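Write out the bound-state structure for cobalt (II) ion.
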Amino acid sequence: MKEYFVGIDKVRYGGKDSRNPLAFKYYRPHQMVAGKPMKDYLRFAMSYWHTLTGDGSDPFGHKSMERPWDGKEEMELSRARAEAGFEFMEKLGIEYFCFHDLDIAPEGSSLREKMQNLDEMVEVIENLMKKTGIKCLWGTSDAFSNPRFVHGAATSCNAEVFAFAGAQVKKAIDITNRLGGENYVFWGGREGYETLLNTDTKLELDNYARFLRMAVDYAKKIDFKGQFLIEPKPKEPTKHQYDFDTMTVLGFLRKYGLEEDFKMNIEANHATLAGHTFQHELNFARINNVLGSIDANQGDQLLGWDTDQFPTNVYETTMAMYEVIKNSGIAPGGLNFDAKVRRASFEAEDLFISYIAGMDAFAKGLIVADKLMEDRVLENFIEDRYSSYRVGIGRDIVEDKVDFEQLTAYALEHDKIKNKSGRQEMLEDIVNRYIYSI
Ligand code: XUL
Ligand code: CO
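---
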């Protein structure tokens, strides 16, 4: 088969002192960490959209990316992107990919044509999967780009659009199923609102729940074994996205009795847009048993939007992998690089360099998090911090044995309270030391 990324060989491990931008410094797929080969914790995936279809255009300028498929159009373009994508993953040793329906095939001029294009491309991708052993982490549907979705898809004020979105998502579930997708993602797209002056939020949310219920029923009908995931995001493209953050989504799912059918796909940049840290969202998903998968990227502290940068902040990747290890891994989810190269990093080589940087940042984060846990650095501190709940009145509280009157009787006898320091700076310094020493 034609080679697309000519001059770039299979990326190898060069060791942490390597100066080669095209070598891994930390990622060694088979190195055992926390009882598993690294690759089983990380389960890296390529995002089809940012890697193969993103062209660098922004509101101020045109396409900037130079790609080996430039000049091709329609189905020929889709085929070239697919072949190049599998070569890219093979060269990086990435075993999964994630895609939107619209990433893999041209939209065509009707729904029927779109579905035919999809079928044709799914066959091409199926063959590439067989040849390479690369798998589908998740599929999803782009129900936000086309102008028909200006008011949303499942939450549109227009029932015709709701119906169209249903047909589109059904098809996306079908093709994800055919490709053996281990998950299916619902990211809110334009499910949200701009102004309450024209919005019936109650009807929109009821309809959104109806839509998700139809998806659950359909998955059962076709025996789709993948995990359904919702990807929270607080804003962008709408001012107020309904799937604001993990706890908002959980409240919504519980209200409509859908909580058994969905987990979360946590994206770092969406967490920070919501005013949370990446670790906060992972932690709240984990403690509620809904940590499903990760969209790995990072935002920019000085910019207020979803910049989708490659994740290179080792402090964040460490704390993220800390949550993943505590969750005993993330399978059948994985770590999808929902990240794009900057507009000025337009050479094809930049794609490789960026993925390597992201993979290494997470590999290092995994190694550091494992060491922190092995030494029980935070565990011991936290255990001690809450030790008052293991004896006396504390034990009675957590065993639900006391009420306000008993607490009052106790407090009247014990009102000279002594607290202990939280030692935040000491802990931050310890985490830094672990990061520096590995
Ligand atoms: C948008 C975003 C999407 C989803 C898939 O912010 O993250 O790419 O991950 O639709
Ligand atoms: Co995402």
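---
The chain has a mean pLDDT of 98.
The pocket of D-xylulose (ligand 1) is lined by residues 100, 140, 185, 187, 231, 233, 267, 295, 306, 338 (CB under 6 Å).
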